[in-house]
Inverse folding.
């Protein structure tokens, strides 16, 4: 096998997952309506007809939470970015039955899309819910929460916008808390500068339920861009 030393360290491994015919059909028939073609797209929030606040969910998995938030907040535009095509298919199947005009999806690497297809100060909230834990020491470098990605998310949020991160991995939570608490550009919204007890907006995600079954604790953190 060739070893490319210049290969980018990514937070994901491209995988198709179990791919049903119905998911493929949903992508074939609904992608034009909901999918974002990132080529020549300078600012994705401009794609929506209604100009209203924009929230982004990175790595939405099967899209259960993204769909819930978009359906219950028609006064907000939602953008989801996910590289797992089977998950995108599941979300599009739902949208086929119950269309939502305030939701769009990208299937590219979130950090590249954020860097090149959003103008600075364009997002009101960013959600990163149960990012891949990459819990083996040698894989820690793949974790989405790192300095470079935090800088990109900071730039794209509006002032006073929120970055909401949740994980069921204690060391990932501690690392996130430590990194963002030390970074004076952010204000931890928890009164004790740690975790949020009743996180607003979101519902339990698939990976959260999986973590709970394993007996993991859930850590929600919300940081405001100062
Ligand atoms: C552990 S899963 C969590 C899914 C969902 N948020 C949940 O809680 O059920 C993490 C997801 O993030 C996606 N992901 C990881 N890195 C990504 C990136 N750079 N851009 C887009 N999606 C990414 C993966 O494909 C995966 O579906």
């Amino acid at each position: 096998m060739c070893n490319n030393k210049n290969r980018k360290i990514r937070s994901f491994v491209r995988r198709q997952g179990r791919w049903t015919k119905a998911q493929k059909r949903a992508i074939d028939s609904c992608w034009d309506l909901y999918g974002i073609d990132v080529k020549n797209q300078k600012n994705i929030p401009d794609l929506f007809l209604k100009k209203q606040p924009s929230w982004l969910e990175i790595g939405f998995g099967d899209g259960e939470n993204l769909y819930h938030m978009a359906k219950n907040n028609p006064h907000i535009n939602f953008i989801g970015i996910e590289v797992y095509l089977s998950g995108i298919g599941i979300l599009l199947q739902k949208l086929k039955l119950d269309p939502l005009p305030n939701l769009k999806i990208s299937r590219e690497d979130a950090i590249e899309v954020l860097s090149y297809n959003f103008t600075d100060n364009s997002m009101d909230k960013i959600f990163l819910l149960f990012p891949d834990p990459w819990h083996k020491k040698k894989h820690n470098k793949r974790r989405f929460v790192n300095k470079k990605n935090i800088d990109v998310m900071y730039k794209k949020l509006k002032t006073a916008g929120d970055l909401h991160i949740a994980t069921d991995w204690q060391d990932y939570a501690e690392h996130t808390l430590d990194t963002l608490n030390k970074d004076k550009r952010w204000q931890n919204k928890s009164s004790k500068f740690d975790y949020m007890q009743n996180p607003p907006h979101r519902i339990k995600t698939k990976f959260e339920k999986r973590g709970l079954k394993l007996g993991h604790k859930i850590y929600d953190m919300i940081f405001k861009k100062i």
Q: What stands out?
A: The pocket of S-adenosylmethionine is lined by residues 11-12, 58-61, 81-84, 87, 109-111, 129-132, 144, 205-208 (CB under 6 Å). The domain at 23-225 is CATH 3.40.50.150 (Rossmann fold). The chain has a mean pLDDT of 94. The chain has seven helices and seven strands.
